[in-house]
Hints:
With 116 residues, this protein is mainly beta. It is built from no helices and eleven strands. Strands 2, 4, 5, 6, 9, 10 and 11 form a seven-stranded mixed beta sheet that branches. The termini are far apart. The mean pLDDT is 93.
Amino acid sequence: QVQLVESGGGLVQAGGSLRLSCACSGGTFSVYHMGWFRRAPGKERDLVAAITWTDGKPYYVDSVKGRFTISRDSGVNAMSLQMNSLTPEDTAVYYCNAELFGVVYFGKGTLVTVSS
Length: 116
């Protein structure tokens, strides 16, 4: 059974950095599309960044381009999201995501709070 466990969230001041990690188990993640979603207070859960297994090319939503970096280490079934220059608008619960042939998995999330 696929399990995704996020870590690394916390409270940080605006302009600061955090690195989120996702530990993956129960699957061969080198063939999964992987990503990070977030749910801000009162909003839908939205995609933040993704990386495919086919070419490893990362994708970012416009609001995080140049600030966030997604990376994966399939050899150890792990993925991370380096977040720099954080703003209060980045406050959200961040979820690790994996997808294979249309089956989607999410972790339970980790809370990131950015104070102004």
